[in-house]
Amino acid sequence: MSAPRWLSPAEQRAWRTHLALHRLLMHRLDRELQEHGLSVNDYEILVNLSESPERRMRMSDLADATIQSRSRLSHQISRMEAKGLVTREDCRDDRRGTFAVLTREGWETIERVAPYHVASVREHFVDRLTDDQLEALQAAFEPIVEQLKKLR
To answer: The pTM is what?
Structure first.
């Protein structure tokens, strides 16, 4: 194994700033969603289902979309089923497949909570940056995201 390429001071600051931003922002968003009885993971699942045809997704596709293991997603869906936000349905075309389906309660929850969440994302992230900074962030992160998706 070759010697590690240690991070320069500037690289170290950028990396640690990124980590702090991610952790602090997710913590803040999660706390604010808890006021509505949801976690960040709950909200992400509700968004994915609400934007899908017939408000349903195969569990395997939902796990990929939310970057969760199938096992972790299954436990998450069980908790959300207990709250009446989603239900599971067997896939008629593939007996091994299961759909996560947004319930009426889940749809009403996302409709009610989304305005608060968007305001929070604006307050803590979007409105803190200029349009040029947002564009630069998106341009900088997109190739990293695409590479990491290939490695999953």
So the answer is: 0.90
